[in-house]
């Protein structure tokens, strides 16, 4: 992603149902934007949404982007169908490890997002908001 800024979770509330879903959506977009193994069209779409250049609703309605999403889903389905039992078991184990790392990172982001804001007055005293 080449954007100077990244949208905030609040900017995804037009499509997300709650702050948690917005957080997960932004993280998913970030993952897509940084995944060099994905179609450049998908990476471009995710980067454009994250950078605030494209509204997420517009991206989901753009035929160019939706075709790339459907193509990727088709590839994933075909790859899953072609896996052997041993490959499926390895994939499950890898997913479990990946999911644990993602959950830990989500917990850290939630803690940062939900942490009380401390402000200092002119005399250096800290107050909590």
Structure notes:
The longest helix has 30 residues, at 85-114. Strand 1 (118-120) and strand 2 form a beta hairpin. The chain has helices spanning 19-34, 40-50, 56-61, 63-81, 85-114, and strands at 118-120, 126-128. Helices cover 64% and strands 5% of the residues. The chain is built from five helices and two strands; from the N terminus they run H-H-H-H-H-E-E. It has a two-stranded antiparallel sheet with strand order 1-2. The radius of gyration is 19 Å and the shape is flat. It is mainly alpha-helical and 129 residues long.
Q: Which SSEs are present, and which pair or pack?
A:
Blueprint: H1 19-34, H2 40-50, H3 56-61, H4 63-81, H5 85-114, E1 118-120, E2 126-128
Antiparallel strand pairs: 1-2
Helix pairs in contact: 1-2
Keywords:
129 residues; 5% strand
Number of helices: 5
Strand count, sense and barrel status of the largest sheet are: 2 strands, antiparallel
Q: Mind telling me the C-alpha Rg?
A: 19 Å
Using DSSP, what is the number of strands?
A: 2
What is the subunit arrangement here?
Answer: single chain
Distance between the termini: 33 Å
Helical/strand content category = mainly alpha
Strand content: under 5%
What is the element string, with H for helices and E for strands?
HHHHHEE
Given as residue ranges, the uncertain stretches (5+ residues, pLDDT < 50) are none
The neighbouring-strand order within the major sheet is: 1-2
Mean pLDDT across every amino acid position: 87
Helix residue percentage: 55-70%
Q: What is the approximate shape? A: flat
């Amino acid at each position: 992603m080449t954007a100077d800024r990244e949208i905030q979770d609040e900017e995804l509330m037009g499509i997300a149902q709650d702050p948690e879903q917005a957080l997960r959506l932004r993280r998913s977009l970030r993952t897509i934007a940084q995944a060099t193994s994905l179609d450049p069209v998908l990476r471009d779409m995710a980067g454009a949404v994250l950078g605030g250049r494209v509204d997420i609703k517009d991206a989901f309605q753009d035929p160019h982007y939706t075709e790339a999403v459907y193509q990727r889903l088709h590839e994933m389905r075909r790859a899953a169908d072609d896996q052997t039992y041993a490959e499926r078991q390895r994939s499950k184990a890898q997913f479990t490890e990946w999911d644990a790392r993602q959950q830990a990172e989500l917990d850290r982001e939630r803690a940062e997002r939900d942490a009380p804001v401390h402000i200092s007055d002119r005399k250096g005293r800290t107050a909590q908001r």
